[in-house]
Amino acid sequence: MAWLLLFSAGLLEIVFAISLKYNQGFTKLWPSIFTVLTALGSFGLLMWAIKTLPIGTAYAVWTGMGAVGVAILGIILFKESVDWYRLLSITLVIAGIIGLKLTDSH
């Protein structure tokens, strides 16, 4: 259950970070409200997950999911760079997330 909560927190982290692009410095009302709600949801689920998961593992997975998700969506939505070094770096973060999951006993 804790891993499902953490995964959901990571997904909300991605949505939160992408929504920052659309709220334009909190100058647009509805995108700003959406940003705040997704941030609160992400933090709330993370806090719930760390009741049973180690904080180091949970935080690393949460931030890693956010970084990978935002990097991939940046490529798709905002036409950001798709060079081999960037893709390799994303792959390494994914490998780290998988490694942390495999080494956790929860």
Layout of strands and helices, then pairs:
Layout: H1 2-23, H2 29-49, H3 55-78, H4 84-103
Helix pairs in contact: 1-2, 1-3, 3-4
Low-confidence stretches: none
Helical content band: over 70%
Gross morphology is flat
Strand content: under 5%
Could you say which structural class the secondary elements and strand pairing correspond to?
Answer: mainly alpha
Mean pLDDT across every amino acid position: 96
- How is the main sheet built? none
The termini sit apart by 9 Å
Return the string of H and E elements. HHHH
Cα-atom radius of gyration:
15 Å
Number of helices: 4
How many beta-strand elements?
Answer: 0
Could you characterize the architecture of this molecule?
There is one protein chain. α1 (2-23) crosses α3. This protein has helices spanning 2-23, 29-49, 55-78, 84-103. It has four helices and no strands. It has 106 residues and is mainly alpha-helical.
